[in-house]
Structures are given as structure tokens and as C-alpha cells.
Amino acid sequence: MSAYKGADLENVHTNHTDDKFGALESSEEVLGGGEAIDATRDRAKDVDAGLDMAVVRRVRRRIDLRLVPCLAALYSISLIDRTNLGLAAVAGMVKELKLDANQYSIAALMFFVPYIIAEIPSNIGIRKFGAANWLAGAAFCWGVVQIGQGFVHSGPALTACRALMGLFEAALFPGAAYLLACWNVRSEVQFRMSMFYALSIFISGLSAIMAYGFTHIETATLKGWRWIFIIEGILTVAIAGVAWWFIVDFPDSNKAKKLLTDEERKTVNARIEQDRGDSVYDPLTLGKVGRYLLVPTYWAYGLMFMGTTLVSYALAYFMPLLLRGMGFSVANAQILTFPPYVAAFIYAVSCGYLSDKFGNRSAFIMTNAILNIIACALLGYTEAVGARYFACFLACMGANANVPLIVGWMHSCISGQSKRAYGSALVVAFGGIGGIVATTAFRTSDAPKYPMGIKTTLGLNAMVFVVAGVLAATWHVRNKKAARGELIIGGVPGMRYML
Predict the structure, then answer these.
(1) What is the C-alpha to C-alpha distance for residues 26 and 18, in angstroms, rounded to an integer?
(2) Is 494 left (phi over 0), alpha (psi -120 to 50) or beta?
(3) Is residue 64 a part of any domain in this protein?
């Protein structure tokens, strides 16, 4: 049975012209006459029309099994490698390297400078060199640097290693989100992004327990904290090798053609084309980047992402120190960081599933922002150890559920692969800014209450709540206009924003 009836899917194409790959607002066209008939139809409701559902399920399952676990493994080791600084700090690194509070914060902060700068160039490179080569190659490089970090003997050397890691790790998250979005329709991508990210943070949560074990490996020249970096760096290099073989490149790549039959590839293209009209690749160029920089909605998603990642980075870098401030021993402070990540895994996957089921992103994002606000209030303004540890659960759940939700919402509201590559990179770059804010607002000299960090987090998550509400209201109004045939969203008749 043919995968798709009545269409030549080898030559499937979009109705975009080059000028429609500019600003989101400028690509909305006022309609009149016969065009209104096409524009009032909701494309997403007909995404599987005419398709063989057995083929749809088979190809969806095959891509999920190849991409989601592999990308999760890469990102989990990325999170482990970038955030194990706090675990090494409480295990003796600060004492041996004679780091004061400012030197530690600078080392943590310097990761994010090249990380932010390299995001957009990286999403240009992933298309040029292929997802498998680009993402696995980046992991191999930062793994080597991570190993080298275990042999540093000064604060400047540690800081240099952190900067190099930021440069290489910049490829992974925006590239993975872009790759998942290119394979999945908008009504299905959120669960996969949430699963990818939740698996990552669940596995990375084990890093505290692993670190506790590694610190007991000591030699005459290498203290226990150094083995955290060395062994985890070796694991990164090994995972990179497996990932290079396992990652499926974009749907139009030679690697995808070897994995899927012609009928399966046609099915993928048909679903993407029907959903949002961008199955054909359009390259991200400097000219398009210049135009997209003027679009305010990308910046709105970026601001929300910054407010959310502030919490996730603060937890990753400072939760062991927070727990130490509550009176727990070094061993217990490392071990007790894991349970909040177990809760976050269950909660984030549930949010992703329900978000796809109900076709809504904003309500979940706003709810999670409230969870972060409550958590900060408990951490900053209560004394009870139980309440403060419970706050770690709330913050871990709210922040780590919102990270994939915000990225997924952005991808659900645009059409055009160059926009997708740019938006993914810009939003994740704001995550790097959130990391900088976390490392500067949560100063080790302010332990154990971190008043500046708590107030900053409260303010930024209130901002997340407001921006999500404003965006949802704006998209609702524009969807109503599109349904009346008054405009075309994204240059694609029948396109609708997801609220």
C-alpha cells in the first residue's frame, strides 16, 4: 500500500519564497478572496490524511529508538561534564588549587562565554558536516578537555579548560533540538524533546553518586576530585564513539536514506509538509540571521529560557553546597542531590506527554514558573531543613520540565528550517546567559542562603510567567484572525500557533 495517495513526494516542496523566511510578523500576510479558503483550514488536524498508519507508526518508532536514547546519552554526559565542578569543589578541588570564592565563580562562568558565542555558528555547521559527525565530534573534543581538567594545578588552567568545554558543548543542545524538530510534527515533538531532556537530567543526576565513588580513588599524585574529571571524560569519549554510529542525520541525508525505505522517507516528508510546510531544507545564511535578529518573539522565548536555566544551573552548581549549608556531610550532600532529579524526570516526561495531548505549552510553562517561585521562597526565607530540601525537589521539577517545553514551544510556532536552526541556537544561547547569571548571583561568599541568587531567581521566573502569558494571548488573537482568513501565519496557509 502506498504511504501517501495522490502526491509525488519525491518532489514535495513548500510554498515559501525566500522573502517569507524573514520575521515571523512580516511573514503573516493579510488575505482576501479565494486565498481565505486555504488559510482557514488547520493543517495540523490533517497531518496523517492519506497515509498508511502502519508505515507512520513503524518509521516513528524507528527514529525514536535511534535518536532519543542516543541524544539523551550525549546530553546527559554533557550535563555531567559541565556541572561536576560543584561536586569536585566539595571533594577537595577548591582547597588543593587554593581557589577563593571569586576564582571558583570565574571558572564556572567562563564555560558560558564561548558557549553563547558558538551557538548560531554551530547550527550552521551541523547541516554542513552532518548531525552524527558534528555532535559526536564535539562530544569527543570536550571529553578530551574534561580528561585534561583532571590534571590542572591552577585556577587559570581550570578556567581555560572550562572555556574550551563551553566552545565544544555549544553544538549539542541546539543541534539535538533542531534535529528532533526536523523529524517530528509539531503535535508530537514535545514529548520527544521532554523525554530526551528528562532522560538526560535523570542520568546526570547519578553524577553525584558516581562522583562520591570516584573521590575514593586516590593515588600519590592524583587526589579523588581529579578522578571525577578523568573518568567522566573517558566516558564522554566512549559515548561519542557510539553516538557517531547511532545518530540518524536529517531526513534528506544519505544516512537517513540507508536507514529508511523510500516509502518511509516519503511518509516522513509528507507529514512534515502537511503539518508546517517546511520539509525542504533552506540553508541558514548570514543574511537570514540578520533578518531573524529583528524578530522579537525569538527573544521572548530566549528570555523565558534564561529564567528557567538560571534555576537548573544554580541547582547543578550549588545544590551540593546548599545541602552542605543545611548541615549534611560531604557524602550525604552528594548523594542527596539525586532524588530531586528522579522526581524531575517523572514530572518533565509527564509535562511533555500532556502538552502534546492537549496541544498546549504555555499553561505548563506558567505552572512550572510558579513552582520555581515557591521553591525559591522556601529556600530563601525558611529555616527548616525539611522544607528547604523539599524546595530542591520543586525547583528541580519546575526548571527541568520548562527547559524542553520552552524550546518545544518555539519550534511549534515557526515554519522554515532556517528559522528552526536559528531559533534553536538563539534560545539555547540565552540558556548560557542563564548560566552566567546563576554563577554570579549565587556567590559562594553568600552561602548558605544566597540572598542575591534567590531574589534574582524570583524576579526572572515572575518574568517567565508574564512573558508566557503575553505570548499565549498574542498567538490566540492571531490564530483567530487566521481562522477568519485575515492572515497567513508563517507564510503557510492553514498554519496555527500552538498556545
Answers:
(1) 12
(2) left
(3) yes
Q: What is the DSSP letter of 474?
A: H
User: What residues have CB less than 8 Å from 350, skipping those under 6 apart?
Assistant: none
Instruction: Give the type of residue at 315.
Output: L
Residue 15: inside a domain = no
Q: Residues 139-153: pLDDT tens digits? A: 999 999 999 999 999
Task: Evaluate whether residue 176 is within a structural domain.
Answer: yes
Going by pLDDT thresholds of 50, 70 and 90, the confidence category of residue 39 is low
Spatial CA neighbour of 423 closest among 356, 490, 496, 470: 490
Count CA atoms within 13 Å of residue 362 on its CB side: 18
Q: Distance (Å, rounded) from C-alpha 207 to C-alpha 204?
A: 5
- 375 CB contacts (<8 Å, ≥6 apart)? 311, 391, 392, 393, 394, 395, 398
Query: Taking a C-beta distance cutoff of 8 angstroms, is the pair 401, 194 a contact?
Result: yes
Its pTM stands at 0.85
| Nearest partner of 342 among 207, 210, 206, judged by Cα | 206
- The number of residues making up the chain comes to 499
Q: How many CA atoms lie within 13 A of 130 on its CB side?
A: 16
SS3 state of residue 216: coil
Q: Rounded to whole angstroms, how far apart are CA atoms 344 and 308?
A: 14
Q: What is the CATH number of the domain that holds 39?
A: 1.20.1250.20
Domain coverage including residue 462:
21-275+283-491
For residue 29, what is the enclosing H or E element? strand 29-30
101 vs 105: CA distance, rounded Å: 6
DSSP string, 46-74: GTTTTB-HHHHHHHHHHHHHHHHHHHHHH
Which residues is 30 bridged to in the sheet?
487
Mean pLDDT of 245-250: 90
Q: What's the grid cell of residue 333? A: 550532600
Rg (CA), the chain: 23
Domain count, the chain: 1
**Whether the Cβ atoms of residue 472 and residue 334 lie closer than 8 Å to each other:** no
Q: Grid coordinates in use for 409? A: 514551544
